[in-house]
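Lab manual, section 2.4: Encoding a predicted structure.

Procedure: take the sequence of the chain (295 residues), apply the prediction step described in section 2.3, and record the output as structure tokens. A sample record is shown.
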Amino acid sequence: MSPTDLYPTRRFDEPRLIYRTEDPAVWGGPADGPLTQAHLDVHQADGFTPVQALLEPAELAAAQNEVQRLLRDPSLIGDERVVRERTTDEVRSVFDVHKLSPFFAALIRDDRIAGVARQILGSEVYVHQSRINYKPGFGGAPFEWHSDFETWHAEDGMPRMRAVSLSLAMTENYHFNGSLMIMPGSHQTFVSCVGETPADNHRSSLVRQEAGTPDHGSLRLLAEKHGIHQFTGPAGSAVWFDSNCMHGSNGNITPFPRSNLFIVFNSIENSLVEPFAAEKPRPEYLGSRDWQILT
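Recorded output:
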């Protein structure tokens, strides 16, 4: 029996705003992990938690080397987990990094990472998706405004908003090289999008998302209500953000690339079912069904 769909999307002729009443952004408490009650309260209210320096200098250097190794790995040429920019053919994203890289597999199990995910989600967790976003200089394309949960719900079958993402900067994130923007508090409103999901939508949406993007009217309402916060900071800084945060980033026409490690943690109590608005689930590297609890 399929679970009740609390967040219907891609089935109506007009967009709808659905207010989040069933799923908190924070499921655990201060005794469950490294974050204080004050941190958790802000995360519940804003939908995100910045971290000034998540990695030590030696860890950061090793992570940056691993990012470059994956970028140049000849064994990944032609691999569908590598997504390239439409106009330049430069690498846009590499998915499944926790499986491709023993270094990153070990790093995300650290209590500073997996421990925080367990605390926010109030349960054991697994990796729903992992990737490196490269956004090269002189042509890194934008990521349009979107809620990750809308896609994960519609195309992967994630039932509830009990997932959290970590974006860890591998390079300096300036205000001018396409850094992350989030509407604080927007995670409390689900924007139901218009239009059906095309077959194999992921083949185009990973380069430029169209299906599952919110309408301009809904975006305008959310931006006027919540404002927009842009995240800048040095390599090694990070931000945790809720699965339903409305977020995006501009393109990068500067000479300065912007690379981030992106890990999505899902509660084991929120494992995937059949997609709510697609004919079949996306590939495993986009929405894991064959997962292991992080220990």
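Check your result against the sample. The domain at 16-168+185-286 is CATH 2.60.120.620 (Jelly Rolls).
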